[in-house]
Specification:
This protein has 230 residues and is an alpha+beta fold. It has five helices and 17 strands. The chain starts with a strand and ends with a strand.
Amino acid sequence: MKIPFNYNHIVSAIVYNKIYDLELAQKIHSSQSYKFFTFSNLHIHKFRLLKNGLLSQNGVIDFIISSPDDYLIKSLVEGFLEDLTVNFIGEEILVQKVELLAVPDFEEKVKVKTLSPVIVRTKKEVDGELKTWDLPPSKEQFYSNLENNLISKYKEFNKLEETDKKITISSEMRHVKAKRISIDKGEQETFHRAYLMDLVLEGDLDLIKFAYDSGLGEKNALGFGMVEII
């Protein structure tokens, strides 16, 4: 089975198609705000590198889906169990196992690593026009934007006007890998500079757990910003 390097939109479509509650799937897909789920990079157990992708040599791949919405996770499990096949670019793949992972212990300071690259963006004025720029983790604004984005998502998910919960996000910059990823959106193709990296989260336990469930940064529902505690 051939897997293109830029597969985020393919896996995202698989997730939407597996949500058993069709009304919920439509509501999330059509939302112009946060989607409140994310997923990891694909783990391809045995592969060979091709010029424009990867060749799975035994057809075994897996990935992790995460969400702060328990009902969404329940609906996804139902969807996968209802139909044990996945359509991956026209090829039918058999789902061998659907497993709920144990929830880790959360502390007020944790180290995490990204299971899918994180995107952080800002707007800059260029020739009198606002343009969107991807921020690198070498910039301080990268972390403040991560913190603000997480709190904004937390408030919206919990239907809060304000919160006094706080979090500080930093990085020891020991394991940073830049990834240039393209995303197909209809007839358009957009490119993003995203980062696989280590991060340190320190603050309110609810925010740390929410970061673990929902993902960090932007475009989580396209498979960006998923983390695991290390």
